[in-house]
Write a structure and sequence with these properties.
This protein has 2 domains: 43-260 and 477-483, Aldehyde Dehydrogenase, Chain A, domain 1; 266-447, Aldehyde Dehydrogenase, Chain A, domain 2. It is 37% helix and 21% strand. The protein has helices at 42-60, 64-80, 82-93, 97-122, 165-172, 186-203, 218-225, 239-251, 270-289, 308-322, 332-347, 374-379, 401-409, 428-438; strands at 6-8, 11-13, 20-26, 31-39, 129-131, 136-142, 147-150, 177-180, 210-213, 232-236, 256-259, 266-268, 301-305, 327-328, 351-354, 358-359, 364-365, 368-373, 392-398, 414-420, 442-447, 487-493, 514-516, 519-521. Helix 2 (64-80) packs antiparallel against helix 4 and helix 9 packs parallel to helix 10 (308-322).
């Protein structure tokens, strides 16, 4: 069977010396669907890397307006092709067309692209800093090397390797992108790449600025991740897969920005439960089972007081989970990983309250709720923080606020941590104690809201301490902050003014915000000032 072509150096061409092929699967049936796609061998990977390396310098020197024009044209093309894209993603992932794909994820994707374009035009991502006394000037600049982006299975648009946040961040910082599509939605990725190539040609960017490979094996992935020609890696996926790539990247000194795993602890403080326990049980259930629980910010561990209000919450939550139909998962691999996670939690002492079973046809799993005493959690914190990626959550029953604090202190790094408090202020002291223990263990601290939603905002931090990500100082969402991962800090020491990058010169015709002698402003530098 002929396989779909690859996007390499501005052309759609057949794979050279592929090592295999694959097809997408319908998660609702488990049956293969759509055309066959190639599993690349060394020849195609090398061709993409060589082309991207050759294009890096030209892209780094490309006027920002052309980068912004590409991003905006691409966003418009995605919107114009929304019906086709949504149908493809629905078939390959079983995510609902409405509201998830059409009304939520696709608009989020185009919004990200446009926010990246805005950041490009404003130069905000470059963060210019000028010390006039020492005649030192610095800013963030392109890596002038390719960025390798791995897309996840759970966001066919918003985190797709050829369209999502990592892609937008890397290309906006003027770096070529080699996109590694996820095998769970190859046809969706192919269609996005077709739109991207057209927008790229219209904007006049170098042909190898955007390339896409569908799949390659772990050995080739490790060799590519450790190739010194790469500038950085953006990865969203499993902890095991990400750490294998990171080891190869670390050995070659390549920055690897990875989202790996998170259980996102939620603390229900006593006053909040007494005030609105039934509503919180419904809110928790809805969050845990949204998208069949296949979110990196799913509430995987919920800490519940051992009192009458806590007992009522557990009873109500158990009823919600027990009465729910099995959710469809993305693939056999996701189902196997989920079952292994549930088995690990149970073997560490967690009791099954509801669910626990796989279903048919296709890849289905019942919404599953488990429970464990806080003392048991504290005796086996590693095993009881096992991520069960799907509609699964573990309740941890705590005797008092002091035990909640101990549980908070036992958590690994997470993307989010949530605390629910009473409206009358009765939980304020408990909040202070638990939040103090939790703050350094989460990237985003949330009040009175389940963690599932991630706003596309310059103030969003979608990151956190290891093992939620590979580096706590960066975010994968929010422009221009997300772009900083794919930049280099360039300093100019006593360089003649006319040879400086535009945003570091004395005059500031673009009105770029710059830090001049410790003050952020948009002013020109006094041309009469003495240079050191």
């Amino acid at each position: 069977m002929a396989t779909q072509p690859l996007l390499i150096n501005g052309e759609w061409r057949a794979a050279r010396q592929p090592v295999g092929e694959f097809r997408a699967e319908d998660p609702t049936t488990g049956e293969p669907i759509g055309p066959a796609f190639p599993i690349c061998g060394e020849a195609d990977v090398e061709a993409a890397l060589a082309a991207a390396t050759a294009a890096a310098a030209a892209l780094a020197d490309t006027p920002p307006e052309r980068i912004a024009a590409f991003l905006e044209a691409y966003a418009a093309a995605i919107e114009a092709d929304a019906e086709t894209l949504v149908a493809l993603a629905n078939a390959e992932t079983a995510l609902p067309k409405q509201p998830r794909l059409s009304a939520v994820e696709l608009p989020r994707t185009t919004n990200q692209l446009r926010l990246a374009a805005k950041a490009v035009r404003s130069y905000a991502w470059t963060q210019p800093v000028i010390d006039t006394a020492a005649n030192l000037r610095a800013h963030r600049a392109p890596l002038s090397k390719p960025v390798l982006v791995f897309g996840p299975n759970n966001f066919p648009f918003a985190f797709n390797a050829i369209a999502g946040s990592d892609f937008a961040s890397a290309i906006a910082a003027r770096n070529p992108v080699i996109a590694k599509a996820h095998p769970s939605h190859p046809a969706t990725s192919e269609r996005l790449a077709q739109l991207a190539l057209t927008a790229l040609q219209q904007a006049g960017l170098p042909p190898a600025s955007v390339q896409m490979l569908y799949h390659f094996d772990h050995a080739i992935g490790a060799r590519l991740a450790g190739d010194a020609r790469l500038g950085a890696i953006g990865f969203t996926g499993s902890r095991a897969g990400g750490l294998a790539l990171k080891a190869a990247a670390d050995a070659a000194g390549i920055p690897a920005y990875m989202e790996l795993s998170s259980v996102n602890p939620v603390f229900l403080l006593p006053g909040a439960l007494a005030e609105r326990g039934a509503a919180l049980a419904q809110e928790f259930f809805a969050s845990c089972t949204m998208g069949s629980g296949q979110f990196c910010t799913n509430p995987g561990v919920v800490i519940v007081p051992r009192d009458a209000a806590g007992d009522a919450f557990v009873e109500a939550a158990t009823a919600h989970f027990a009465g729910a139909a099995p959710g469809v998962l993305f693939s056999r691999g996701v189902l196997d990983h989920l079952q292994h996670g549930v088995a690990t939690l149970r073997s560490a002492g967690a009791a099954l309250l509801a669910g626990g079973d796989a279903g048919a046809p296709g890849y289905r799993h019942a919404p599953t709720l488990l429970s464990v005493d806080a003392s048991q959690f504290l005796s086996q914190p590693n095993a009881l923080q096992t991520e069960a990626f799907g509609p699964v959550s573990l309740l941890v029953r705590a005797d008092d606020v002091a035990q909640m604090v101990a549980v908070a202190a036992a958590f690994e790094g997470n993307l989010t941590g949530t605390l629910y408090t009473a409206a009358d202020g009765s939980d304020d002291d408990a909040w202070s104690k638990v939040a103090s223990a939790l703050r350094s263990r989460v990237g985003r601290l949330i009040g009175n809201r389940m963690p599932t939603g991630v706003a596309v905002s310059p103030a969003m931090n979608h990151g956190g301490p290891y093992p939620s990500t590979s580096h706590p100082g960066f975010t994968a969402v929010g422009m221009p902050a997300a772009m900083q991962r794919f930049t280099a800090l360039h300093c100019y020491d006593n360089v003649p003014e006319h040879q400086l990058p535009a945003e570091l010169r004395d005059r500031n015709p673009g009105g770029v915000a710059r830090c001049i002698d410790g003050v952020w402003c948009i002013d020109d530098i006094d041309l009469g000032a003495q240079r050191g």
